[in-house]
Amino acid sequence: MDNVQHPVPGKLTTAIVICCYSDKRWDILNKAIEAAARQVPPADEIVVVVDHNPALALRLRTKRFETLVRIVENIDPPGLSGARNTGISVSSGEVILFLDDDAVSDQDLLATLVRQLEDPSVLGAVSAIRPLWETDRPSWFPDEFLWTLGCTYRGLHPGPVRNLIGASMCIRRDVFDHTGAFDSGLGRTAKALPLGCEETELCIRATRALPDGRFVFEPSSGSDHAIPADRATWKYFLHRCWAEGLSKASLSLMAGSGEALASEKTYMTTTLPQGAMRGFADLLLGQPSGLLRAVALGAGLAATAAGFAFGRTRAALTRPFTSVPARALEPVE
């Protein structure tokens, strides 16, 4: 128990929550946990939540870590939202840093984001999330669509943002006290279709409940987010765009189109046209990859819009949209 960190008077207490689900990510998961344990100053607690995979939980419990790491199993519905909610319930830090199981954080990540939260109006902060390509980065892949890989994309500027990106984000505990948990009707599961938007829905709900609060993007520190070879393909790219459209359709029904799509309007009218112009400019300079990136921008937008239209049409033709309510959080002993 000598490794247990004790709160420092006047300082925000901190917890790091890492959610995992697959043995296939064992190597990068261990790197993510080791990086979390090397934070300076260290977190008061580190919790690894295993999403309905008892074998993985047992494997983690038998491993020796350099610092105290608590391994727990998801007691909520399967999926990333449920795993995060379990992490919130079993931890006690005033500030919670959520990390993906394939995100290796900088040593100063926690300290950098906590500094942002020393301002009481800041509800949460997200760091830079850099792609760590397993293979060579495809020449056609546009920076504007790095969000399909859970990374910081071109067009996201430092300062206030509507929502955080889940791979490397810090949120005050009292946000959940006011708004409830992540919505289990949204968010990734082990299924093939990579749905999302649970962070966006939570942030919209939080700023409605706490209108004087804001979320911020602080890129001076960050995490390297592993990108496996099967995600560096046109198939995954278009599949992920389609799934984002479906997710945004669900979100717009839950939160209203105004807030759900506010950032997307600027993205479509400013970020994407600027990206296309850069692509064509590179083509004129003798770089064929510029044309490929411009094509990818158009294809990604079309796939996302198609997914959104399909999701809204499906909802209109069936029963009204409902999701699993965001439950109140009770500590788990």
UniProtKB/TrEMBL annotation:
Residues 16-177 form the Glycosyltransferase 2-like domain. The chain crosses the membrane at residues 290-310. Gene3D superfamilies: Spore Coat Polysaccharide Biosynthesis Protein SpsA, Chain A (3.90.550.10). InterPro entries: Glyco_trans_2-like, Glycosyltransf_2, Nucleotide-diphossugar_trans. Pfam families: Glycos_transf_2. Keywords: Membrane, Transmembrane, Transmembrane helix. This is Glycosyltransferase family 2 protein.
